[in-house]
Amino acid sequence: ADWRLALWTLCSVLLPVLLTAWCSLQRARRQLLMRDIFRKSKHDWRYTDLFGQPSYCCVCAQHMLRGAFCGCCGLRVSERCLGAADRRFPCKDIVARTARGPVPHHWVRGNVPLCSLCAVCGQQCGTQPKLCDYRCAWCQYTVHDECMVDCLKTEECTFGEFKDLIIPPYYLSTINQMRKEKRTNYEKVVPSCGKHWMPIIILANTRSGNNMGETLLGEFKMLLNPVQVFDLSKITPAKALQLCTLLPCSAVRVLVCGGDGTVGWVLDAIDEMKIKGQERYIPQVAILPLGTGNDLSNTLGWGAGYAGEVPVEQILRNVMEADGIRLDRWKVQVTNKGYYNLRKPKVFTMNNYFSIGPDALMALNFHAHREKTPSLFSSRIINKAVYFFYGTKDCLVQECKDLNKKVELELDGERIELPNLEGIIVLNIGYWGGGCRLWEGMGDEPYPLARHDDGLLEVVGVHGSFHCAQIQVKLANPVRLGQAHTVRLILKSSKMPMQVDGEPWAQGPCTVTITHKTHALMLYHSGEQTDDDASSLSE
């Protein structure tokens, strides 16, 4: 009896362990096979543990909760049918096989978007609980099974609503052929793409702010040609923007999905294009704000932050309708003091603002903690909460007090007498600190309007972190020190926190000189503007 009890005990312990090990081995084997298919496939396969809507396998037509989907054509398939789907269904071609000829519809069966309407009869598609109806991966038209006729399968695709933004596959194949023949007159190909063609390039930073970049990449690849959608974690803006040299001059629009830092990175790459002599290919830049502060995006009417509340289709419509404007860009040169200082001056490019004092200290503390534990700073709300914590701490400690005794300020060569201050902020744009119109304050005093394209900087002082908080809720005005074309600030003693566009550092005695560098071509979305924005643009 004892040996039987021992045997049953051993079985009861070993059996679950062996079963778990076998299941883990099988799952690891399936994942290895999936990764191999993902790597070799022309589809942009991605795996999900839970689909966001009722989904059916394109091969066996069975309902499924998890599986793989193609980020370009929208094909959905279960794990066991992945290999068959990869062999049977082609993805949409980013470059046409022939340089001439129309592009037919690329029909994908089943899993059509919710509330989509049939292009033939006008009734709702995808209402039946099974694999049914068709969607074109280019023009996004949907058609019922019973409405699908032979002529639709061979009909030329018009690329739908966003035909003026899409780079057609036949355009790229024609350009490739011309490059082989060493011809560069690409303008002759443009008329075939339409009179109002304004191709768009998507540059998404998947590491920005609320980590929505990955989702947006897939949605834009579905609506556009995947060749015009770039992940900035895998390719630099400088390389991605070389696509502009194959497109019509002064017609390209770039949508930057990221924070103000990502926008600055892209604008630096555009400045490099000017240096290379590619100025006629310079694109206009729109912003989809995914960062924490997003002050530049707010100034240009694109909002203070994107969290998926606006459909991607509407974002593309906004880019199409946006107006072109200029944005001043400034050179910030920091020269360390000392007779034996042989290091080159630090040189930054400023789009938003420069500051010395409490807000730079908050940014410095925030960045120090984010570098130690980056995984904790994946949410815009958490990021702002951390900023609030350091701002509250500085209200009590006042690490930047008596700044006016430590610095000298010159505006256009004229020395400015400073009152008792803890911080000085030099503004190029209307918004600061995550949505505050700092120069205007409460708006109850007469002041010259701030613009981002007039070659002037606005310089203000603050009495501390508590004063900054009062300005943000419109309970106080800043200390307006003046407007100038050139700003010079001399830090005479001690080490103080400084920042340029949210990039902070601790700086010893030095001279900071801010001068105009260049202009950037931006896109302004009037749909998000406030009364203050409208009045400043009309001046």
TrEMBL record:
Membrane topology: Single-pass membrane protein
SMART domains reported for this sequence: C1, DAGKa, DAGKc
Reactions catalysed: 1,2-di-(9Z-octadecenoyl)-sn-glycerol + ATP = 1,2-di-(9Z-octadecenoyl)-sn-glycero-3-phosphate + ADP + H(+); 1-eicosanoyl-2-(5Z,8Z,11Z,14Z)-eicosatetraenoyl-sn-glycerol + ATP = 1-eicosanoyl-2-(5Z,8Z,11Z,14Z)-eicosatetraenoyl-sn-glycero-3-phosphate + ADP + H(+); 1-octadecanoyl-2-(9Z,12Z)-octadecadienoyl-sn-glycerol + ATP = 1-octadecanoyl-2-(9Z,12Z-octadecadienoyl)-sn-glycero-3-phosphate + ADP + H(+); a 1,2-diacyl-sn-glycerol + ATP = a 1,2-diacyl-sn-glycero-3-phosphate + ADP + H(+)
GO molecular function, one term: ATP binding
Top-rank lineage group of the source organism: Eukaryota
Boundaries of every Phorbol-ester/DAG-type domain copy: 42-91, 104-157
EC top class, as a word: transferase
Entry GO CC: cytoplasm; membrane
A Gene Ontology BP annotation from the UniProt entry: glycerophospholipid biosynthetic process
A Pfam cross-reference name: DAGK_acc
EC number: 2.7.1.107
Subcellular location: Cytoplasm; Membrane
Name of the protein described by the UniProt record: Diacylglycerol kinase
Stretches assigned to the DAGKc domain: 195-336
Gene3D superfamilies: 2.60.200.40, 3.30.60.20, Probable inorganic polyphosphate/atp-NAD kinase, domain 1 (3.40.50.10330)
Membrane spanning stretches: 6-25
Classification lineage: Eukaryota, Metazoa, Chordata, Craniata, Vertebrata
Annotated source species: Grallaria varia
Main location: cytoplasm
Keyword set, alphabetical order: ATP-binding, Cytoplasm, Kinase, Lipid metabolism, Membrane, Metal-binding, Nucleotide-binding, Repeat, Transferase, Transmembrane, Transmembrane helix, Zinc, Zinc-finger
Keyword Endoplasmic reticulum (UniProt): no
